[in-house]
Amino acid sequence: MTASEAPLVLRVAGRPVGRYVVRPELPARLSPRPHLHPVTTLSGTVVTELAPADHPHHLGVGVAVPDVEGHNFWGGRTYVRGRGPTELDNHGAQRHGSFPLRAPDGFVQELRWVAAGGGLLRERRTVAAAGLTDTAWALDFTFSLTNVTPGPLSLGSPATNGRPGAAYGGFFWRARKESAAPRVFTAHAEGEAEVHGRPADWLALAGAGWTLVFAGATDTTRGDPWFVRTAEYPGVGSSLASAERLPIPPGETAVRRIVTVVADGRLGRDEAAALVRKAVGR
Known about the structure:
Layout: E1 8-12, E2 15-21, E3 35-39, E4 61-68, E5 71-73, E6 78-80, E7 84-86, E8 93-103, E9 106-115, E10 118-133, E11 136-147, E12 153-156, E13 170-174, E14 183-185, H1 192-195, E15 202-206, E16 210-216, H2 219-222, E17 226-229, E18 235-238, E19 246-248, E20 253-264, H3 269-280
Antiparallel strand pairs: 1-2, 2-3, 4-5, 4-12, 4-13, 6-7, 8-9, 9-10, 10-11, 11-20, 12-19, 13-18, 14-15, 15-16, 16-20, 17-18
């Protein structure tokens, strides 16, 4: 492992809040990819999980897509229409290229998405950490996926492959699992059944002494539905392919930006909305 591939620590006002693993040593079946874990509140409460027993391919915070032209960059089984979840030898990996910028409060990273010996996507990932209050900070996460193949390419999900309600794929945060399921809410809705599969400017996940507030920071990102789990496990993602596949023509790029407020305490709607306004500026 070179010096540039060593894990880096994100800091807010000198305080460590996240560890970014650049080159994870993982089996191919987990679709190895750079990720953040642990991520903590300013008081030190861990709000991510890595490779939990229920889903070993859930890796903290990162970008994962279950279907890139038939290649699995999510990890685990692949949902096959007419067959269901199926073990396939189709896993891809995200490989670190370089850090055009690497600083205590963030970085810019170039990555390659490779499968079956070839490159499919080039990604530029920009991550920044910034303080908001004495008890909250924001993780600003942008990823740009460029089709580097000579032909058309599209991103899919189990939902686009025939499994209703399973449009996961894109930015994903595997949250801390506790004895009780976290509360989930938006500005206008409450509960997993009401917020899952729907777009919202922001969505909050509140556990025992911590709250995460996810917000789309561009019009395109805000148009993507949220993928939400609380009862089975705590996780939130922004869905790239919900009702239909997302095409990326040769040489073109899909960009998404999600800002996540990481707060101590169990926030209510007004507090969550105020912190989102401060973090995103809207």
